[in-house]
Hints:
- With 187 residues, this protein is mainly alpha-helical.
- Helices cover 54% and strands 0% of the residues.
- Helix 1 (7-16) crosses helix 7 (86-100).
Amino acid sequence: MAVEYPFSKVIGDMMYASHQNPITDCLQCGTCSGTCPAIEYMDFSPRKIIGMIRANLKEDVLSSNTYWSCASCYHCTVRCPAGIDIAEMMYALKRYSMWKSQFKEGLIGPDFSESFVKMIVNSGRSYEPILAATYLPKYSASAIVQEALTASGLVFSGKMNLFPKKIKRIKNLQNVVRRILPLGETS
Length: 187
Ligand code: SF4
Ligand code: SF4
């Protein structure tokens, strides 16, 4: 019978894999929340999210926008008195959320992340027009026109390719990624 580990342990283990202090060391001092530049966009502050993870409130954590709103600035990480890498914790939540296909509806982050990973696996390069397709539908018509004008300016000035290019030996990259992700067929 498969063992269901507590949510706090799963996220804690994902962070431990990157050599960070356990979230059980959190003092709930609020330094991370006080230093976070993105807090006004978050459903719950970083301090609160840590408390919720420790209380195994998995559904509430995963259905919040907090970890998708993190700007990865690492202010919280460098200031935490308990040495917890809160920014890495936000990444762990994103990975877990994508793994379980469980996230708040209407967010750009999950679609953007999926599109980015597929693009890198298929070409080995980032190509902005493909990424833009994941978030442009959420923009106004005038913003889309502005983006299109900016993109054509970049193409005409030679700063962006008209079509995406693949790196050499893309199969080698795909074989490396295949060791950690179930890729299926790749082009
Ligand atoms: S700064 Fe560190 S110890 Fe303080 S609440 Fe945030 S994670 Fe916990
Ligand atoms: S890394 Fe994320 S959670 Fe931490 S201060 Fe920056 S935006 Fe806030």
